[in-house]
Each structure stands twice: as structure tokens, then as C-alpha cells.
Amino acid sequence: MIALVIIFTSIISGTVMSHILEHTTWIDSFYLSISSVTTVGYGDYSFKTVAGRTLAIVWLLISTICVKKSCLYLADYCQQQRRRIKEAKQIPPQTSPAVAVALSDKFNLLKYRSIGKKDDVNIKE
């Protein structure tokens, strides 16, 4: 949730800054903000005033890093959710919590073995 707030805050702040400093329309300011933060930069719009360029330097350095980190966080979160769903399908529905934890641990050990991360010597079951 915080990641989405950071992304939208970066885009909105760039849109407002561009609209005020560069005197562009809201649509053009939004477009400039999106293309700048995502580092696409088509070149059809750019910051032209000294004040706009100065604030754009600071804004782009901060917002680009924040947006990239937020996207990585969202991707990691989605991957964890997918893994949890996959593990839940491996555990029978009438299983007690203690057995479910044991089966989940066994599933993780088998997964590590299959990708070669652990061998039988390193695994203490």
C-alpha cells in the first residue's frame, strides 16, 4: 500500500510542479511527469525554465529512485503471495496447524533440493 502511495505522490508532485513552473496544461504536465519518472523521456516535452530544471533535477533523482524501489517491493510482494497460494494448495484442507507448518517446511526443503540450493548433508530434518 505504501509503495502505491509513493508512486502516486511522485507523479502528482511532478505534475503540479510542471504545471506551475512550466505553465503547461494539466494533461501535458501529467504526461511529462509520467515520462520523466519512468525514465522513458520521449523528448517532446521537457523542462524549459531555470526554476523548472532546477527542481526537476531534485525531483527526478528522488522520485525515480522511490518509484523503482516501490515497483521492486510490489513485485516481491506479488511473488510472495503467489508462493503462499502454491503452498496452500499442497496442504490438505483438513490439516491441523502443526501438521500444516511441518508440511510447509517439508515443501520448502524439497523445493531447495530441486533447485540445488541444499543437499542432504546440509538439511537437518
TrEMBL record:
Give the superkingdom in one word.
Eukaryota
Alphabetic keyword roster? Ion channel, Ion transport, Membrane, Signal, Transmembrane, Transmembrane helix, Transport
Where is it mostly found?
membrane
Q: Name one GO molecular function term.
A: potassium ion leak channel activity
Any single GO BP term: stabilization of membrane potential
Q: Kindly indicate where the leader peptide sits in this chain.
A: 1-18
From the record, give the transmembrane residue ranges.
56-75
Give the membrane topology, semicolon-separated if more than one: Multi-pass membrane protein
GO cellular component, alphabetical, reads: plant-type vacuole membrane; plasma membrane
Q: Give the family from UniProt.
A: Belongs to the two pore domain potassium channel (TC 1.A.1.7) family.
Instruction: Write the protein's name.
Output: Two-pore potassium channel 3-like
